[in-house]
Amino acid sequence: MKEYNFKIGGTEYSVYIKSVKNNVASLSVNGTEYEVEVEGIKTVPTRAVSKGIQQPPAMQSTEPVVKPTSHSGTATQLKSPLPGVILDVRVKEGDEVKAGQTVMILEAMKMENNIEADRDGVIERITARKGDPVLEGDVLLSIK
Fold it and tell me: By CB neighbour count within 10 A (0-12 exposed, 13-18 middle, 19+ buried), where does 17 fall?
């Protein structure tokens, strides 16, 4: 269908939207396949200009707003709240953590963001490493 190229924090992302059926879109981000749920159609007012005379605003439909659906709300997976780059990983697999403990530092829009454990537990798996670019919704680690 459509291909988009993004640059976030110096990292380039190639997003290819393969299909949209009902409210589910199939897409590829840098070769990784995702299925996302279409949240809604965003409309923006536009003004038509004809021979220098502005016409009343019309509503123009844009691309669907999408959000990841895989593993949504799973308590054991800690996900990136926004796109950025992992600056530091402060835990290792097997470490015990408490809710609210900083487990990673994420740089997004030139700001450092503390990523905190959402519950008490043990780090089961770390999927993001220092220097990794991440997208909003990417799984950073699992807590069991």
Answer: middle
What three-state secondary structure class fits 30?
Answer: coil
Is this prediction's pTM over 0.85?
A: no
Contact present, 46 and 57 (Cβ < 8 Å): yes
35/18 Cα distance (integer angstroms): 10
Q: ∠ CA 72-77-82 to the nearest 5 degrees?
A: 70
For residues 85, 91, 93, 96, the Cα torsion angle rounded to the nearest 10 degrees is -140
Task: Going from the first residue of the chain to its last (144 residues), give the mean pLDDT of each consecutive group of 10, the final group possibly shorter.
Answer: 78 82 80 76 46 46 37 64 93 93 91 90 92 91 91
Residues listed for the chain: 144
Per the CB < 8 A criterion, the answer to whether 29 and 4 are in contact is no
Identity at 85, one-letter amino acid code: V
